[in-house]
Amino acid sequence: MDRQGRKDLTVVYQHDPPSASARRLLDHVFGDAQGHMVTFAGRQARLDQDDARRNELTHTRQRSFPYPTAVEDAVSCLLEESRRERDAYFGVHLFRKAGSRLASNSVGTMSSLWLDEDDGRYPDNSPQPTAIVHSSASRRHLYWRLTRGVSAEWVIEMNRRIAVWAGGDSGKAGLATVLRAPGTMNYKRHPQVDPVTMEITGAGPWEPEVMEQAIPEIPSSSSKTSSTAPYDGPEVDLAEYLASVEVIRELSDGLGVKFAIVCPWVDEHGGGDRTGTRIGQRAGGGLWFHCAHEHCQGRGWAEFCRRAPQRRKIRVIPPRDTEPKGRVVIRLG
Q1: pTM for the full model?
Q2: Separation of alpha carbons 118 and 115, rounded Å
Q3: For helices 71-83 and 18-30, what crossing angle results, to 10°?
Q4: Residue 263: helix, strand or coil by DSSP?
Q5: What number does CATH give the domain 11-214?
Q6: Which residue spans of the chain are classified as CATH 3.30.70.1790?
Q7: Could you tell me the end-to-end alpha-carbon distance of the chain, in angstroms, rounded to an integer?
Q8: DSSP states along 168-203
């Protein structure tokens, strides 16, 4: 394996039976997870109406299947939809109950990242995808298998970072995303019909921390939660708070300094996930805290201070002979 995580052999499943190719990708994406898998299909309106909009789907249908117990039924459904000249997709995230792709219904833990590359291009000098689905001759869907399950919130954040970096479709970063299944056909460019194929690259699986360090963060200027207003509060040293937490690494930030840390509430994260937490200080002096995990929503700097209080050096000055007996001077350094 080379330094990018690539092995010498890329296995292309273009000649697999369609059912085997689809099943192989589902196993790759979901692993040992359990929940309800969603299939989604629709017919390109242009097949029946010459004046229909491009990629307008009609007569759409969504179904749910228990995973992994009914995975063969799910694969059969996808292939049957495709044989009926309908574009067939699968939901890349599992859900707790059937019939809903709402984020509140998600199983909460995932072990894969994904990207709809669209018109962009994922950089070659970065952690290579573990699976690639060719939805046409020029379009790809990329997947990164992880070594362990992580929170859905962290997956969404990383998917967005990957999409922005690659110039891909950031709208496909969420849990409700559906992507094409290998073994089906792509009718989007009808009368040209493209087979959807897959390859397992031999890269990975990747440690979540490796992906987090390798993929650039979305620039702070584009973040709705970032504040650039001048700070007029008391002067505070960020280092005194860093001493209260486990620091993973320093991150680049155009508005000041920023660190990836282990969240003080990590015991509340799904699976004890240590990723997705940031602390920093703006150039003007203001301090901030952000954690991407659902359990930490609404927790800001004030909550962080109460959980991980500032550690300051205390210097005890013993009394001098000329001072009253027992007097001790305490100074905060």
Answers
A1: 0.69
A2: 9
A3: 130
A4: coil
A5: 3.30.70.1790
A6: 11-214
A7: 50
A8: --GGG-STT-EEEPTTSEE-TTTTS-EE-EEEE---
- The alpha helices in 31-175, defined as continuous H runs, are 71-83, 152-166
Q: Are 5 and 206 in contact (CB under 8 A)?
A: yes
* Total count of residues recorded for the chain: 333
Q: What are the backbone dihedrals phi and psi of residue 14, each rounded to the nearest 5 degrees, phi first? A: -65, -25
Tell the residue number behind the tokens 């970096």, with chain if given: 165
Single-letter amino acid code for the residue at 77: C
Prior bond to 216 cis, omega within 30?
no
Question: Do you find a cis peptide bond into 129, omega within 30 degrees of 0?
Answer: no
Residue 214 tokens, joined: 């390798």
224-228 long-range contacts (CB < 8 A, ≥24 apart) are 225/290, 226/255, 227/282, 227/286, 227/288, 228/255, 228/282
Q: What span, in angstroms and rounded, lies between the C-alpha atoms of 89 and 96?
A: 19
Residue 206 CA from chain centroid, whole number: 13
Bridge partners of 102, per DSSP, are: none
Give CA–CA dist 19/183, Å, rounded.
7
Question: What does each of the 333 residues of the chain score in pLDDT, given as a tens digit?
Answer: 443 444 444 565 556 688 999 999 999 999 999 999 999 999 999 888 888 777 788 999 999 999 999 999 999 999 999 999 999 999 999 999 998 888 788 898 899 999 999 989 999 989 999 999 999 989 999 999 999 999 888 899 999 999 999 999 988 898 889 999 999 999 998 889 999 999 999 998 999 999 988 999 887 643 444 445 555 555 567 887 888 888 887 877 767 888 888 888 887 775 566 777 888 888 777 888 888 776 787 788 888 888 887 665 555 556 666 555 555 554 444
